[in-house]
Amino acid sequence: MRNRRTVDGREGENDLSMRITFVLPCFNLSGGIRVAAIYAERLHRRGHRVVAIAPCERGPTFRDVVRSLIKERKWPSAPLPEPSHFDGMAVGHVLLPHPAPVIEADVPDADVIVATWWESAEWVAKMSDVKGVKVHFMQGYEVFAGNPEEVDSTYRRPIGKIVISGWLRDIVQGKFGQTPLALIPNSVDMGQFHAPPRGKQATPTVGFSYTTQAIKGCDIILKAYDLAAERIPGLRLVVIGNCPVSDRLPLPPGAEFCYQARDQTLRGAYSRCDVWLSGTREEGFGLPILEAMACRTPVIATPAGAAPELLAKGGGVLVPHEDAGAMAGAIADICLLHEDRWRVLSDAALATATGYTWDDATDLFEKALQVAVERSRDPARSSTPV
């Protein structure tokens, strides 16, 4: 770390500037990449030297080539880079010319290197100390994305961990016997996600985030929508998603699908709903819940990730896991509320979203990285709280 003289108004001359590398699994429009991009950009604005690095998508395999030549009589094209939350940012971000893994030669020397996914934590663990003090930014318990034994072995590594919910903190402490560097809940950018005071929609409307990943529970949400539509004729459905709709998980006729929605389109989708749905079976945090609440939309969610904390003060209701009937009943209850009672829920949702800012979160994230560096230099400080 080195002394810096000028940063934004939140810091003074005695603050320390760090060289920080974020190692990502990819660049795309997912919530996890959004959060990493927010921290990277805000740390950059505070005077830190920040770079984000990710491998490119793996090209077609030999089997893919043969299948394409036989069926389509053409050579398969290489995958194109996806749009990403890092697009247009001043933060340096590098899409490597090769697929995973990211290796030591790919990253610069730094003070801190931050892994953002279980595989990237494994890559980072193998790098030498000149690449920075290793920190694992845990945005979920990602056993769904690999061999559980391999994933767990990554979490057992003695690398400082930043978690985003009490649920993840409890896993790190209870299952892996470690104390996280910090618990830093996600926030929401009120400049991007907002809505004027409003009432219910003229046509009752619900929305959710679409994905084919089973852990997200979209199958339960769609069953709940069908059941609720039997009680609420004409119930409208607004869906956002970063993957195309699959034949294995089709949307009902008439659903509005916003593919790879960003900025005003994403805000508009949240704001056109009377209630936002989250049926996830397992979640690190659940950022769309908070984004919807910032747009004055009440939420119905399963008790996963940060949902219990976010809905504790009102602004929505929790329903049991795997219970489409309970979710359908909650949809009907909220959509059929009297206007005044719906506004109470809407106001409570907004109050929750505005109670904690990305500036607050970045203060804690920055401090956690600084403490990780200090502990590496002085092991006696290992019990220093963040």
The parts where pLDDT drops under 50 for at least 5 residues are 3-14
The succession of helices and strands, N to C, reads EEEHEHEEHEHEHEEHEEHEHEHEHHH
C-alpha geometry: globular
Radius of gyration, whole Å? 22 Å
By oligomeric state, this entry counts as single chain
Mean pLDDT: 90
Any overview of this molecule?
The chain is of the alpha/beta class. 34% of the residues lie in helices and 16% in strands. The strands form 3 sheets. Strands 5-4-3-6-7-8-9 form a 7-stranded parallel beta sheet, sandwiched between helices. Helix 4 (148-155) links the parallel strand 7 and strand 8. Helix 1 crosses helix 12, helix 6 crosses helix 10 and helix 8 crosses helix 11 (339-353). It starts with a strand and ends in a 9-residue tail after the last helix. 42% of the residues are buried.
Summary?
This protein is α/β, with parallel strands linked by helices and 386 residues long.
Q: Any descriptors?
A:
386 residues; alpha/beta; Rossmann fold; 2 domains; seven-stranded parallel β-sheet; six-stranded parallel β-sheet; 12 helices; 15 strands; 34% helix; disordered N terminus
What topology does this entry show?
Layout lengths: L1 E2 L12 E2 L1 E5 L7 H15 L3 E6 L7 H10 L20 E4 L16 E4 L2 H8 L7 E6 L9 H8 L4 E4 L2 H9 L7 E2 L21 E6 L7 H14 L4 E6 L14 E4 L3 H9 L3 E4 L8 H8 L4 E3 L5 H4 L5 E3 L5 H12 L3 H15 L4 H20 L9
Parallel strand pairs: 3-4, 3-6, 4-5, 6-7, 7-8, 8-9, 10-11, 10-13, 11-12, 13-14, 14-15
Antiparallel strand pairs: 1-2
Helix pairs in contact: 1-12, 6-10, 8-11
